[in-house]
Design goal:
The chain has 13 helices and 15 strands. With 354 residues, the protein is of the alpha/beta class. 46% of the residues are buried. Bound molecules: beta-D-galactopyranose (GAL).
Length: 354
């Protein structure tokens, strides 16, 4: 084989390697599947039907997830049935059982309780239906795929922004719901940044509580308790999302401290964006929901057609190394509000600067 042909052959091989590395998702049709799944009749001309089992529609973002996911699935020529359990575990399991008995081709789940939802994965697999974990990981189950943002990174971005403003002092951490695996990842990210400063004695975390069920009123009560326990001597607050940050700021407001103490949030909710440009909240973390919904819709339809999806990245959920896609979160403050959430059309400039 002449040297030119050898060279051409090497270049072609290199190109294939590069192409597959770009998208950390690979697809094969020869899966090693549990018997039931491999026997599942792939619908010929029937429309693919995706089941979407959601924890809640309480927070602003979940309404967006619901609508964007529905639009993305339908744009791919498939249909989607959506159910939201309003934070009730047994309701979520019942709703998922109904979707399974209706014969959806694939199930997408936003778990309320990371552990309890494993039952849904087992039931789906028994019916030959694969399951994707959407934004939140289902623990201790053979979940087929996990797609989310890098939630540990979210916590790091929050703590980096606040420690830049308050390198020394008393901190309050208002965590998320401890039933939600994301809340643990967020907290891990925050303490990745805080711990070295704590070890140096520069920072003291004087209050650290989960927020039961992510309910803002629970965050309000926790923040009031933190202020009372520390005679209002608090220098910074990191709250796990904007809904809880809003209640933290309400509690600070009551003590005449709103805008004087830096507060971090997450989700780039409209009211948070308004608080940031008005100066009562310091920053939030923007997660382009459109990208997440689009990614999951594409992967869900491909899997429903029998494709087996693998990824470079894996996340251990306590039972298995789950193939995972983790998208990048973006820190937002008043300096980059325009070129992030407004440029993406996540919010309009009029609404934010109202
Ligand atoms: C988390 C999610 C956040 C947040 C929260 C409350 O799992 O990643 O965006 O809003 O749930 O629902």
């Amino acid at each position: 084989m002449g040297w030119r042909r050898v060279l051409f052959f090497i270049m072609a091989l290199a190109l294939v390697c590069v192409a597959s590395a770009c998208k950390n998702v690979t697809e094969t049709v020869e899966p090693v599947l549990p018997t039931k799944l491999s026997e599942k009749e792939m619908p010929d001309d029937d429309k693919i039907k995706i089941g979407f089992s959601m924890d809640t529609l309480e927070e602003e973002r979940w309404l967006r997830d619901r609508d964007l996911f529905k639009a993305a699935v339908e744009a791919l020529g498939a249909e989607v049935e959506i159910k939201a359990a309003n934070g009730d575990d047994s309701e979520q399991i019942l709703q998922a059982e109904k979707l399974i008995s209706e014969g959806v081709d694939l199930l997408v789940v936003v778990p309320h309780n990371a552990e309890a939802t494993a039952a849904i994965v087992n039931k789906a697999h028994l019916a030959g239906i694969r399951v994707i974990s959407y934004d939140r990981l289902v623990k201790n189950s053979d979940i087929d795929l996990y797609v989310s943002f890098d939630n540990e990174k979210v916590g790091e971005l929050q703590a980096e922004a606040i420690t830049k403003l308050v390198p020394k002092g008393k901190y309050v951490y208002i965590g998320g719901a401890d039933t939600d695996n994301n809340a643990h990842l967020l907290k891990k990210g925050v303490f990745n940044v805080l711990q070295p400063l704590i070890d140096k004695g520069d920072i003291t975390v004087v209050y650290d509580q989960w927020t039961k069920n992510w309910l803002p009123e629970n965050a309000f009560a926790n923040m009031e308790a933190a202020l009372a326990a520390n005679n209002n001597q608090i220098d910074a607050v990191i709250a796990a999302n904007d809904a809880t940050a809003g209640k933290v700021i309400e509690a600070l407001e009551k003590q005449g401290l709103a805008g004087k103490i830096p507060v971090a949030g997450q989700d780039a909710e409209l009211m948070a964006a308004q608080r940031i440009v008005q100066g009562t909240q310091t920053m939030t973390v923007y997660k382009p929901i459109k990208t997440l919904a689009q990614e999951v819709a594409e992967l869900a339809v491909r899997m429903a057609k029998g494709k087996y999806i693998d990824t470079d990245r894996k996340v251990n959920n306590g039972k298995t190394e789950v193939p995972s896609v983790l998208l990048a979160p973006i820190a937002v403050d008043k300096e980059n509000m325009d070129e992030t959430v407004i440029r993406d059309g996540f919010h309009t400039r009029e609404d934010v600067y109202r």
